[in-house]
Prior knowledge:
The chain is of the alpha+beta class. The chain has helices at residues 7-21, 33-61, 63-71, 150-158, 179-182; strands spanning 76-80, 89-96, 100-110, 117-120, 124-133, 139-148.
Amino acid sequence: MEFALGTTRIVAILCAVMPLAGCDQKVGQNVSERDIGNGLRERAEKEVIAYESALASGRKSIPTVQEFNRAFSSASNTISYHVGGGKPAWNAKVSLYDRYVVTLRIPITLSEDRKSVIDYGTPEFRVVEVTEVTKSGSIRYSEHQISFGLDEWEFLRKAGFDFSRIGYEMIKDSPVSGLSDAWKEA
Length: 186
């Protein structure tokens, strides 16, 4: 991989990310652009492997995630704060009727190597109605939203995911233009 940036600029960037890249090079040592690129690429590849392993682990070990993905086969699953300083959380979401976004969020604990979900907290659900997707891809929401917990989820599951059974009426025949491409970013 060739870099368009100069060596001095690359070394400055490296100094900022040394703890993340696992480098033990000192500032001022002769570090080539190729060494920097290879080290960062290797670190990124390891992070991707750990992230994918954690996703597979959560899909297998968290019953509510399994139910959500079974109920909504087009659901998107992500882990927020897989790396970094925040508290990790499982996020699953799906678009319904090209108008609503249903989200599942569960606090999780990852193994030290970040490859496995070793514990999880109480699931929280949210349904939001989208009113517009702008030409730039921004999503605007209505005030027609609902948040609920595991008890309502169980009731919904038994009711065939008829959201009106928990007091949330959905418009099923009026899709929002552009949501089918933008909902994963919602």
